[in-house]
Amino acid sequence: MSFLSLVAKNLFRQPVRAFLACLGIAVGITTVVALGVIVEGFKNSSGAIMTMGEADFFVAQNGASDLSFSTLPESTESEIAAQPGVERTAPAIFHITRAGANPFFFLLGLKPSDISMSPPPLVAGRLIAEGAPDEVLLGDEAAAQLGVAPGDPLKLADHSFQVVGVYHTGEKFEDNGGKASLTTVQEIAAKPGSLSVVYVYVVPGTDVGKVADAIEKAVPLAASIVDIDDYDKVDQGFRIIEALNAAIIVIAVGVGAIGVMNTMVMSVYERTREIGVLRAVGWSGFRVLRMIVTESLLLCLVAAIAGTALGVAAVEGVMRIPAVKSLLEPEYSTDIFVRALGVAVVVALVGAAYPAYRAIRLTPMEALRYE
Fold first, then answer.
1. Domains of the chain, residue spans
2. Which of 34, 39, 108, 250 fits a disulfide with 311 by CB distance 3.0 to 4.6 angstroms?
3. Residues in a beta bridge with 154
């Protein structure tokens, strides 16, 4: 019998116990994968907001609990525009409202002139005209869900609009939302004279980081969001999600290691005499150690495969919810699956540590006398 055949046979002598240990680890891996995919998708969506309209970065209210609660006075735009290295600015306001079956319709308020300077890719119709407060552009997915086309009326948040154009950007939150006049969205959101963010376009060749730092020093309320790592300045949810992700990994390792340790300890106790025979016929302590650790790794590898498959299935299930689908595009990055495999390996090594130590401490005579 080969070494690997012996390992597999030993591991599945007690199939129910092995299955329950595998299931516990798989549940942890499922959570790690599912949460990782959603977090990465959330980061990608946030990154798309940051560079919307081909802006270099945006400025929001420093310390806001969430980007949708960011509130800046309109005068902030002129302060930002006056900073060295700033080519132009585009003030914007965000508003989340219901549109048909979608309770999280993303309505972006911009000046029509700013929309025309960085227009979204149109698939039908035209852009919003100057002095037309009741015109709206829709993403193609939103237009399809609402069953409207250019020229059709549309009611959003008790305001009557006329759809004048449909665009496609490839970003979920944009293609499931719309763009309207800044003053109109300020009125709908009951925030006259307020902005959510100011998009900044720097002079070509200028150091973006230096411009962003200068704005933060000159404008006390401002937080410059240049990359995804800056988001926690204006969105505490990012920090919470990252902390939750780390906590889930720690819990998965802890719970999984306990399950593996229990399984392997019981396996070693039941095979004490067998281990004694192996030592008596010439097996070294290192080879016994390798056998126990390999059994643990095999168990956790099976759990990792099952947990990853369940994690992907869970994400796809969540994505069937219309409200989630309209805001988020799952991101299946290699890092997530490597992290899941890493968790499984750590669980295997930690769980096998004590059983392996006990096995190699047994002398052949002690093991053969064991009842």
1. 3-46+238-369, 57-225
2. 34
3. 161
